Each structure stands twice: as structure tokens, then as C-alpha cells.
From TrEMBL:
Residues 199-404 form the DUF58 domain. InterPro entries: DUF58. It comes from the Bacteria. This is Lipoprotein. Keywords: Lipoprotein, Membrane, Transmembrane, Transmembrane helix. The keyword Membrane applies. Pfam families: DUF58. The lineage of its organism: Bacteria, Bacillati, Actinomycetota, Actinomycetes, Micromonosporales. The keyword Metal-binding does not apply. The chain crosses the membrane at residues 31-51, 331-352.
Length: 438
């Protein structure tokens, strides 16, 4: 195959014979010479069959951060190869640069680095490495069929973990966990329902925590201390149905739910509770969790990375069957979904009383701030402005009615704006844990 240099050489050489007596004959001679040089260049190009490829580098990265993957090319042939290589990834992987040039003498290797800045979470695979062997003059090159490149391309997948903007408030929430666990010295009876240890009475302690029998044995006033419940179950349920694709500001609703679920999962793991993940719409997409306390959080985060919105209506009866079938122990079930009246009336509300009878259920939804703005009329409203405001008021009224119905069915409803959403979910968890209601 010919290169652009071949075409440039023809473009320069063909006008010259116009000055000679026999221009057509001279033009043919120029074309013949250039074609002959291209054939010689093609014959001198190194073989592609002697090339071997392997990859190394990052396999996991948080969304918004940078990953580096190195492609090592080894020339096992006995001839030099002037290589032009294109390392193709899916567009959302944000790979740069796409092409590399290298000169490989016999029995040598060369490392080619690709920087990845993904724009979406999930799996971002490498697609294909396309190889070209250029001749010394750069007029022609060798390239095999696509099947040859596919067989030679080493498989590689970059798992992009979801964005975690609520990480900024994680230290403050962890400090509250330490207070609950007693790592921070506090006065008073403390929180929780599980007995911890006996200690000497300190002025300011609640007199109701005095253990009189132990005080008689120790000949001193001692009090009982309590610690929060541990090894409780927290199940994060992420609705991946059609409503999860709606954008709240610049963020999809599913991404906002994943952020809040990430914060909750980290807190619950640090507090000694067990965390599981369930992603579903018309079918169960992800089940993650279980294992030891050291492995459950990575499994949950990895499961969240693979979730994407689906063009399907969420079937909450699947959730009821999953919980009632396998979870005998009481759990805190946090359902991240949208407070839309129609899906809730037909999906979640019929099964909610059965879930609430066995588990503590939280329904968490992020609120669109644009709804409040649309209710305000301009100084000189038009008919369109009045109609829009009336429609939004109706939506807000239905939302209030739905919250009341969910509360009557036994659920705790969290309805917050995007900046406060993750913090509100974690605050409710901490309050329930402090009160021993998990």
C-alpha cells in the first residue's frame, strides 16, 4: 500500500515534464520511477508476522482520574521494522495518543504508553491494535488483514469506578462513627444497645447507667457503657430503570444515587456493618457484597461501576422476591429511586408493607432543583409560563402525596437536593445506628 509521501512525490514530479518536448512520455517515466521506488520500498519493509504484543499498566481507575497502559512491542524477526501503530480504545476511554511510531531492530522491544482519561464509569476495553510496517523511504507500507490484528491484539479492560464527589464530607461522617464507637471520649451514657464495659462513674454521667450490683462488688460507683450495634446488614438497592437516566443538573440520577450509596457503604463498613448491593430494573443486573469485612467494600464498588441506565420499567417485585427469599436477618434496605407517582403506585407501594414488616426500609430520591425554579413566575408571565408553573406545582403535589403514602406504608423517605443528597442518606443511617434501630 502507498503512503501520502508517494502521492506528494507524484504531485511534485508530474508538472516537470511539461517543460520538455515530449511531456507525456516524460510523465510516464516519472510515474514509472516513483512506482518502482514504491515497490522497492515495499519489499524493504520489515515483516509484521514477527511482532509480539503485550500490555501492562492500570486496570482500575476512578472516574475523573488518569490511567496509563503500556503496550510493549517485541520484534522477533531478523529484519528491522519501521512501525506505525494505532492503539484503538472505545471513545469513552479518552485514549491519547492514538498512534505511535517506533523503529524496532531485530530482537528488541519498545514500550508505547497510552494515557486514558475516561468520561464514563464501567468497563472500557481496548479494541484493536493496527500495525503498519513502513519502508525506509516512507513511500509504501505493509498491513495485514483485520483478523491478523485482532489475533495479535492483547486483551485489556480498564474498570472505571464511579465518581465519588461526596468523599469531601467523608472525614466528618467518620468522626461521628468514631464518637459512636467510643474512640472519642464523651460523657454520658453513650449510644447504642449492646453492652460494652463497666467503668468508674464520672461527674456528668447519666445516673440511670449506674450498675448498683457491680458498684457493690467494686466498692465504688461504676456505670455501664454501651456501644452501637455491629454486624448489621445494609443493602443498597439501585434502581437502574428508565428514570435513572434523567439528568439532575449535569449529573444522571443514577450517578447521584451511586455517589450516595458509596458514602453509605464506606461508613457502614467502617462501623462494622455488612454491606450488599443490588442493582435492578426489569431484571437483576448486579448482586455484590458478602465475603469478609475486608473484601465486601471492593466488591460493592466494583459492582457499582458496571451499572448503567436501562430503557425498561423497574420491577420492584424482583426486589421483594430477592429480600424475602434470601435475607432472613433484619436489614437496613436503602432503595435509591425516583419519586415518580406512576411507577411507585404500580411497583414499590404494593410490596412495601411486606418489606417494611421484616426490614427497615429507606426510600432515597434526589430532587431536581429546576422544579422549584419553574414555579416562580416572571413579572409579566405569558400563557406558557403559567402553564409550566401549574404543571410543576402538580408534580410537586404528587410528590408530597407519594412521600406520605410511602411513610404510611412503613418506609422512611429521603428527598433532598443534589448537593445535600449523599449527606442526608448517611445522616439517617448514623441516627438509626445511634438509636439502635438497625
Amino acid at each position: 500500500m502507498i503512503t501520502r509521501r508517494f502521492a506528494a512525490l507524484l504531485a511534485v514530479g508530474l508538472p516537470l515534464p511539461a517543460l520538455l518536448p515530449a511531456p507525456w512520455l516524460a510523465a510516464g517515466g516519472v510515474v514509472g520511477v516513483v512506482v518502482l521506488l514504491a515497490l522497492i520500498d515495499l519489499a524493504a519493509a520489515g515483516p509484521l508476522t514477527g511482532l509480539r504484543l503485550r500490555r501492562a499498566g492500570d486496570r482500575q481507575v476512578w472516574l475523573g482520574q488518569t490511567a496509563t497502559v503500556t503496550l510493549t512491542v517485541t520484534n522477533t524477526a531478523d529484519r528491522e521494522v519501521r512501525l506505525r501503530l494505532r492503539d484503538s480504545w472505545v471513545p469513552s476511554a479518552g485514549a491519547t495518543p492514538l498512534s505511535h511510531d517506533a523503529v524496532l531492530p531485530p530482537d528488541t522491544s519498545h514500550d508505547l504508553s497510552t494515557t486514558l482519561v475516561p468520561t464514563r464509569h464501567g468497563d472500557r476495553p481496548a479494541v484493536r491494535v493496527t500495525l503498519r510496517s513502513l519502508g525506509p523511504l516512507g513511500l509504501a507500507y505493509r498491513q495485514r488483514r483485520r483478523t491478523f490484528d485482532d489475533q495479535l491484539t492483547p486483551a485489556w479492560n480498564l474498570r472505571v469506578l464511579p465518581r465519588f464527589p461526596s468523599r469531601r464530607i467523608l472525614p466528618e461522617k467518620l468522626s461521628r462513627i468514631r464518637v459512636l464507637d467510643g474512640a472519642v471520649v464523651t460523657r454520658g451514657r453513650g449510644h447504642g444497645t449492646e453492652f460494652d464495659v463497666l467503668r468508674e462513674y464520672v461527674i456528668g454521667d447519666d445516673v440511670r447507667s449506674i450498675d448498683w450490683r457491680a458498684s457493690a462488688r467494686h466498692h465504688d460507683v461504676v456505670v455501664r457503657t454501651w456501644r452501637p450495634e455491629r454486624d448489621r446488614r445494609v443493602l443498597c438497592v439501585l434502581d437502574t430503570g428508565r428514570t435513572s437516566a434523567a439528568r439532575i443538573g449535569d449529573v444522571p440520577r443514577l450517578d447521584a444515587a451511586i455517589d450516595a450509596a458509596l458514602l453509605l457503604s464506606v461508613l457502614a463498613t467502617r462501623a462494622g456493618d455488612r454491606v450488599d448491593l443490588l442493582g435492578l430494573d426489569s431484571e437483576v443486573r448486579v448482586r455484590a457484597g458478602g465475603g469478609s469485612h475486608h473484601t465486601q467494600l471492593p466488591l460493592v464498588i466494583d459492582g457499582m461501576a458496571s451499572l448503567q441506565p436501562a430503557l425498561a420499567e423497574t420491577d420492584f417485585s424482583l426486589l421483594a422476591r430477592e429480600l424475602l427469599r434470601r435475607d432472613r436477618k433484619r436489614s437496613l434496605v436503602v432503595i435509591f429511586t425516583a419519586l415518580d407517582i406512576a411507577p411507585m403506585l404500580e411497583g414499590l407501594l404494593p410490596v412495601l408493607p411486606r418489606l417494611a414488616a421484616r426490614h427497615k426500609v429507606l426510600v432515597a430520591s434526589v430532587r431536581d432543583p429546576q422544579l422549584a425554579h419553574l414555579t416562580a413566575l416572571p413579572p409579566r408571565p405569558t400563557a406558557t409560563d403559567v402553564h409550566t408553573a401549574a404543571a410543576v406545582e402538580r408534580v410537586l403535589t404528587q410528590r408530597d402525596r407519594l412521600r406520605e403514602l410511602l411513610t404510611r406504608s412503613g418506609a422512611t423517605v429521603i428527598d433532598a437536593d443534589l448537593p445535600d443528597f449523599a449527606g442526608r442518606v448517611s445522616d439517617v443511617y448514623l441516627l438509626l445506628k445511634a438509636a439502635g434501630r438497625l
